[in-house]
Amino acid sequence: MVKAKSWVMAQHFDGFPKKSDFGLKVEELPEPKDGEVLLEAVFLSVDPYMRSFSKTHMKEGDVMIGGQVAKVIQSKNPAFPVGSHVVSNSGWRTHTLSDGTGLTPILPEWPKDVSLSLALGAIGMPGLTAVYGIEDVLGLKEGETLLVNAAAGAVGSVVGQIAKIKGCKVVGSAGSDAKVAYLKELGFDEVFNYKTVGSLEEALRKASPEGYDCFFENVGGPSSDVVLQQMKNFGRIAVCGSISTYNDSQPQTGPYPYFTMIFKELKMEGFLQSRWEHKHPETLKRLLAWVKEGKLQCREHVTKGFDNMPAAFMGMLQGENMGKAVVAV
């Protein structure tokens, strides 16, 4: 019998999450039955979507949702031998019994010198999100100018690098001088700290006086309306996230950018990476190849200890991370 820990949402978040919103549970798991495996978490992910999905996909007492890289420690399923590693949407748990449904084995060609935690980041869901947003939603072309906000985060930092691989000018917005320096190291053409610029409009115009062909939106809120004013005619916007609104107790209203969208003839599309699930295996191999070739740099913000999951989650929502935020068990 294995003792499994899990973090549950003790009560729905009201505004920004607080420690008392979470509860730690311990239970004993039975031995795996035929066809089942016992997983032990190695790395767990904390992501912005968990905050927004908690409103619509969870009820009080549910285990917090999320992905993890796990090791198979017992197996009665030949597809998942003991000692192998998988990506699993098991949520915030140390151990999970699974019948194999939804488990994704780590790519067999995964290099030994590359941390498996990247399967939760640049070679995982955030990387997939970046690729599909750029290629399938925006249709980004060589020579175009792309703006990405929350640019030092798990998705934004990959978006900018892929856009550079494709021969584009990349402008990034981030929330600290350290993040600005990091993005310049990654090869972004222009970067600014949105918290310290006197005018967002002026910062955008200075970074790209000719405007923007594409905008990869991660933040939402009033700043997005300022960006739309700077879009070129027929510009395209991929709406990936709205982290600035996730902790609002009351939904924000306005501004309403319809006239701008009409007269500039803009195209705006929201998306989830799961739409292209059929392409995941091929896309993950492309992302891994870019990492191996040195074209895609990966930084992680690692918190140690399963007991620190809530703190890691809240820190990520406050922007403490550069790159992907993960918890190492």
Note down, in words, how this protein is organized.
The protein has 329 residues and is α/β, with parallel strands linked by helices. The chain has two domains: 2-121 and 298-328, Alpha-Beta Complex (Quinone Oxidoreductase, Chain A, domain 1), CATH 3.90.180; 125-273, 3-Layer(aba) Sandwich (Rossmann fold). 26% of the residues lie in helices and 26% in strands. It is built from nine helices and 15 strands. The chain has helices at residues 49-57, 125-138, 156-165, 177-185, 200-207, 223-229, 258-264, 280-292, 309-317, and strands at residues 2-9, 22-29, 37-45, 68-75, 85-88, 95-98, 104-105, 145-148, 169-174, 190-193, 212-217, 231-239, 267-270, 300-304, 324-328. Strands 3, 4, 5, 6, 7, 14 and 15 form a seven-stranded mixed beta sheet that branches. A six-stranded parallel beta sheet has the order 10-9-8-11-12-13, with helices on both faces. A two-stranded antiparallel sheet has the order 1-2. Strand 14, helix 9 (309-317) and strand 15 form a beta-alpha-beta unit. Helix 2 crosses helix 3 (156-165). The model has no long low-confidence stretch (mean pLDDT 97). Monomer or homodimer. Belongs to the NADP-dependent oxidoreductase L4BD family. InterPro entries: ADH-like_C (IPR013149), ADH_N_2 (IPR041694), ER (IPR020843), GroES-like_sf (IPR011032), MDR_fam (IPR045010), NAD(P)-bd_dom_sf (IPR036291), PTGR1 (IPR014190).
